[in-house]
Amino acid sequence: MAGGLFAAFSIVGAVCSRELGNTGGEHLDVAMTDVVASFSQPISAVAAAGESPRPGGTALTGALPWYDVYETSDGRYVTLAALEPKFWRTFCEAVDREELIDAQGSDDPATLKATGEELDALFRSKTRAEWEDELGDVPAMFGPVNTPEETLSYPQIEARDLLVRSDEAPLRVGFPARSTDEPTGSDESIPDRGEHTTEVLREGGWSDAEIDGLRDGGAIEQA
């Protein structure tokens, strides 16, 4: 999926570049492995320096107490991602822990350990639902860790009408972007392999003879 997205981004960029007269056309090379590797930005610099990043040992995997996952009293989990000072301050004020505000930004191991222990004990004092009630509307980058089932019924998902239900196809997560010119009445059935190949090629300017040549040469499947 990630490789396909990057391929689509690259194609759109190349088309725009061609239309602007910057190039006469491009050959794009998008490898799935390369795309996945690009997602490792938060730890790639550490790894390139010869270190071995481990869970809990980097800024975005638990080394910073203000950006971590915490267990609640009912064995559930919540996340805190208050990297920016304004979010951390808001969180500390909301939970009456103003004394922790100045800890952010410290690289002192003792300070990080003490802050983490304080937050660990704090979050274990209430259930996940209680923390959601208390912090759900607070701009502090706090959120619950949901199961897949809970995610599909989460208010944000429902409000965005993200799930596509159809009698012709299994339930799926729809296209996540919203547009003022979205198509209506789209066919949600699953096409057969190659079902629309001829139609698409015709729209692209290919003649029936050219399409037959592609088919005879094995470039596209037989109808």
Topology of this protein?
Layout: H1 2-19, H2 32-38, H3 41-48, H4 59-63, E1 67-71, E2 77-81, H5 85-94, H6 109-123, H7 128-135, E3 142-144, H8 148-152, H9 155-159, E4 163-164, E5 172-173, H10 197-203, H11 208-216
Antiparallel strand pairs: 1-2, 2-3, 4-5
Helix pairs in contact: 1-2
General description of the model:
The chain is 43% helix and 8% strand. It has 223 residues and is mainly α. It folds into three domains: 38 residues, no CATH class; 94 residues, formyl-coa transferase, domain 3; 31 residues, no CATH class. The chain has a three-stranded antiparallel sheet with strand order 1-2-3. Strands 4-5 form a two-stranded antiparallel ribbon. The two termini are 27 Å apart. It contains eleven helices and five strands, in the order H-H-H-H-E-E-H-H-H-E-H-H-E-E-H-H. Strand 1 and strand 2 form a beta hairpin.
Summarize the structure.
This protein is mainly alpha-helical. It has helices at residues 2-19, 32-38, 41-48, 59-63, 85-94, 109-123, 128-135, 148-152, 155-159, 197-203, 208-216; strands at 67-71, 77-81, 142-144, 163-164, 172-173. Helix 1 packs across helix 2.
What's the average pLDDT? Answer: 92
Distance between the termini: 27 Å
Strand order of the largest sheet: 1-2-3
Order of helices and strands: HHHHEEHHHEHHEEHH
Total count of helical runs of at least 4 residues: 11
CATH architecture of the largest domain: 2-Layer Sandwich
Name the shape in a single word: elongated
Number of individual domains: 3
Specify the CATH homologous superfamily of the largest domain.
formyl-coa transferase, domain 3
Number of strands: 5
What is the CATH first-level class name of the largest domain?
Alpha Beta
Determine Rg (CA atoms, Å): 25 Å
Indicate the low-confidence ranges by residue numbers.
Answer: none
| Biggest sheet character | 3 strands, antiparallel
